[in-house]
Amino acid sequence: MNKLLSIFIIAIALVSCKDQKAITQKTKEAKKEVPFVWEGANLYFLLTDRFNNADSTNDVNFDRTKKTAKLRGFKGGDLKGITQKINEGYFDQLGINAIWMTPVVEQIHGGTDEGTGVTYGFHGYWTKDWTNIDPNYGSKEDLKQLVAAAHKHEIRILLDAVINHTGPVTEKDPVWPSEWVRTEPHCTYDTYENTITCTLVKNLPDIKTESNEAVELPTQLVEKWKKEGRYEQEVKELDEFFTRTGYPRAPRFYIMKWLTDYIKEFGIDGYRVDTVKHTEENVWQEFKKECDFAFAEWRKNNPEKVLDNTPFYLVGEVYNYSISGGKMFNFGDKEVNYFDKAFHSLINFEFKWNAKQMAFEDFNKKYDSILHNQLKGYGVLNYVSSHDDGMPYDPAREKPFEAANRLLLGLGTSQVYYGDESARPLIIEGTVGDATLRSFMNWDSIQNDEKTKKVLQHWQKLGQFRKNHPAVGAGTHQMLVEKPYIFKRSYSKGDFTDEVVVGIDVAVGPKIIDVSTIFKDGQQLKDVYSNQTIEVKEGKVNLDSPYTTVLLESL
User: What pLDDT, on the 0 to 100 scale, is given for residue 26?
Assistant: First the structure.
């Protein structure tokens, strides 16, 4: 009897042990389920035409065959090329959880020549038809597949919204009616009005976004849609939109309808909004309302495709906005709060200067203070290089490792401009203006150049660490040691908590790091950078690696 009882007790113990292991495993899995947080996201920004060409059959459309100035014509990048890299895991390896691509809407068919040579609308900001995707980029089916592939990899997709202007006037692209656009005066940028009620540059018609007067569709758009066999459908949808909203048929509301269709049809997760300060601030409040409505409609109609309950994301390009201004942007004669009922984040034009001029700790303290006080509940999008900033952090790509440290270990949302991670050249001989920043992605160097591979590996390690730990970009900051520079980041939301320790410019070889204020004795940690597991003993970790970077997380 005692023998049978003993066997029974042992069996119960084994089952209990098995159950406990299962519970422990589930706990670990739950712990690893990292919430997506826009404030700490790792966003990749690319020019659709310059990233990857997966379909050479769509490289030339609308007889865009004139010889262009250097890097001012279409080069073949397309939506299929982006999808290809998503499926290959390129963005996963880089720790990217959001992709912003330049506008994919149909561009003007002709080219401009303002003394610098012929330029086509390869960059996407010269709209001809908001309702159609430019065939140089691909088709609506291509965009649908791109979004689906991205969501499968838990990557959010941002398109780029332009409401401020149409494309330039060319021999193939007549000016829109005067009820829709103004062609003068040119902006002088010295007051609020002289930044908004004007054209940005010569031959870039400005949409009359201030107008509430009803306007008819432009004749050229009507003729185009009829030729394409979709006029009746487009008009029917417009009638439904204006009936639902009660908006006047003013220019801006047409464009809002066309842009929010991409949300309802494809389930994109956000918009980066172009030329924000050149349009009245109420426009963006109206746009947010329609974006939120469209996103809710898409979620209701596609419950199986919803990633989570993260709201639709709007990030604005208020040129020269600086985090130091908090929520306000100063025109000189007027201050405007673009966060108010509009944007979740603004692009932070100050970041590259802070990164270049400030000690790392001063830099971190500044951002920690502003983001958790003046900007609490909102965010900024930081960058070290971009498509139209002629003074990047590292123009000659001499400091790609330091650039990664500042951007990917900085507080706020990080914007990796395509090629930052591979030191793609930003100085191209023979180019004029922004073209030098927009060369084709340097895939050959990534495949064959050892120096480039080392740079990429550094960006990948930091990027994955950032993606897996919201504390890095959205957490609170505390320095632990001044030299070598070691700090911690902490983040909590609901039941989720996240704490990490980062070391920069630490000694190569053996190193001892005090983690007593964060981790407990006996706790297993991993240095993500060297891929080593270590145990906390007497409040410290002893680590031996050939690297000067340490990225500690708990297991």
Answer: 40
Closest CA relative to residue 365, chosen from 325, 373, 347? 373
Q: Examine the residue annotation and report whether 59 is marked as an active-site residue of this protein.
A: no
Tell which residue, 368, 286, 370, has the closest CA to residue 323: 370
Domains delineated in the chain: 40-468 (3.20.20.80), 477-554 (2.60.40.1180)
Name the active-site residue from 173, 234, 274, 421.
274
Check whether 336 has a pLDDT greater than 50. Answer: yes
Mean pLDDT value across residues 263-287: 98
In terms of residues, how long is the chain?
Answer: 555
- The pLDDT of residue 460: 98
Q: Closest by alpha carbon to 419, among 469, 384, 462, 381?
A: 384
Tally DSSP H helices, then E strands, for the chain.
Answer: 16, 24
Burial 493-505 (b: 16+ CB within 10 A, else e): eeeeebbbbbbbe
Return the amino acid letter for 166.
Answer: T
Predicted pLDDT at 116: 76
Nearest to residue 262, comparing CAs of 87, 104, 137?
Answer: 104
Quote the radius of gyration of the chain (alpha carbons, Å): 26
* 390 φ, ψ (degrees, to nearest 5): -75, 0
Count CB neighbours of 239 within 10 A: 11
Q: Where are the alpha helices (DSSP H) in 372-483?
A: 400-408, 443-448, 450-468, 470-474
Q: How many CA atoms lie within 13 A of 219 on its CB side?
A: 5
Count of CB atoms within 10 A of residue 270's CB? 25
Concatenating the DSSP letter of every residue in 265-309 gives: HH---EEEESSGGGS-HHHHHHHHHHHHHHHHHHHHH-GGG---S
pTM here is: 0.94
pLDDT at 1 over 50: no
Instruction: List Cβ neighbours of 91 (8 Å cut-off, separation of 6 or more).
Output: 44, 85, 99, 153, 155
Q: Of the listed 317, 420, 498, 499, which one is catalytic? A: 317
Active site (annotated) includes residue 240: no
CB 270 within 8 A of CB 312: yes
CB distance 257 to 265 below 8 Å: no
Q: How many CB atoms lie within 10 A of CB 361?
A: 13
pLDDT of residue 32: 60
pLDDT of 28 higher than 60: no
